[in-house]
Amino acid sequence: MSIQNQSDNFDQDELDKFERLADSWWDSSGEFKPLHQMNPVRANFIDERSPVANMNILDVGCGGGILCEALAQRGAIVTGIDLGDAPLQVAKTHARSSELDIQYTKISAEELALKQPKQFDIVTCLEMLEHVPDPESIVNACSTLVKPGGHVYFSTLNRNPKAWALAVVGAEYILRLLPKGTHDYKKFIKPSELGAMVRRANLQTQEVAGLIYNPLTQSFRISSNDVSVNYLLHAHQPA
User: Of 21, 115, 130, 234, which one's alpha carbon is 20 to 30 angstroms from that of 227?
Assistant: First the structure.
């Protein structure tokens, strides 16, 4: 595994899309409602497997800081990185209003990996891999950024007909949980594909679990046996 400074590992259309939506990041009933609904479940998943209090955590693709704040509230020392100016400004403003000390920086994961390898106890990269041209480059960077013995968490969308029907057609066009065009089905990643990226990055997969949405209760839960749509992957960096 080698790390290159891939500062161009982004899709400008994707960045522009999230720039336009930046003011909605903290509206729990707005465009990012699904993120707010799944965030407690994601934070619990991470905290239960690698307790975050007093841990040095990096969130790659932090957006407006929803996960960063949840982890900081649990006592973590949090850094969030993103390439979007507007989401980062929203994240900084909201952290100040929440009286949380979170370090936000505009930098790519690859560039930070070259500058600060093996600096973080936990690295998270959630709902981001399906938005970049080269997800494996991000996985490699996360592996470089985490300390030996540390933990890395990814979440993304599976690529199959059910995921297309629920995450694209259902969420964007029928239930209107997300803006139309939020996801590009071709960029979805099968668990087997992400698992292979993780192995090539010298990480060890500990667990793959599904994030299941219940439209009646408008809530998410963790499933150990259904990774057909949204899923989380927990990896470990050998000591």
Answer: 21
Binding region for S-adenosyl-L-methionine: 42, 61, 82, 126
Q: Which residues are annotated as a binding site?
A: 42, 61, 82, 126
DSSP assignment, residue 54? T
Using alpha carbons, select from 135, 158, 137, 141 the residue that is nearest to residue 232: 158
Q: Is the pLDDT of residue 187 over 80?
A: yes
Do 68 and 80 meet the contact criterion of CB atoms below 8 Å apart? Answer: yes
Task: Read off the pLDDT of residues 40-60 as tens digits, 9 standing for 90 and up.
Answer: 999 999 999 999 999 999 999
Q: For the full predicted model, state whether its pTM sits above 0.85.
A: yes
**Which is nearest to 159 in space by CA: 203, 201, 192, 198?**
192
C-alpha–C-alpha distance, residues 160 and 157, integer Å: 9
